[in-house]
Amino acid sequence: MTSPDRPAPSAPADTSLANRYGGQKRRLPRGAKRAIVGGALAVGIGFLAWVSTSNSLSSVTFKDIGYSTPDATVAEVDFQVTREPGTPVKCAVKALDSKYAVVGWKVVDVPFTAPEGAEDTVDGGRTVSQRVTVRTESLSVSGVVDSCWATDGSSPKM
Fold it and tell me: Which end of the chain has fewer CB atoms < 10 Å from its terminal CB, N or C?
């Protein structure tokens, strides 16, 4: 006759867990933690500085002044552009209907030089007022400047 098999004695719990899940993790030294936190902080401060100064370094800004719609096929948009004197600028102007759909679009050149006597103004001729006529597909209820940007530096074609 044979005797029944007896189970083998079990290993201690901590040894079996280590075999199953791996040993304890090594911790980072205190100096390495400080270096990582310091580096992340420096990167964060650098990013914030870049974001805060990138908008202020933009050499072209614009401001909508008003609009009018003489008839269903035309919209007139008045706006001001501020840029460094002698900087050629283009602006995208759009006309919108009552559902804010674009019914007219035009890219215009802002004068390359300030008007005569503009150097005597408060801002030294940096700000130029424009009135643009935009042809529309249907009656527009609004006209705005979508964006303005400095061009490559060559004089615009007139």
Answer: N
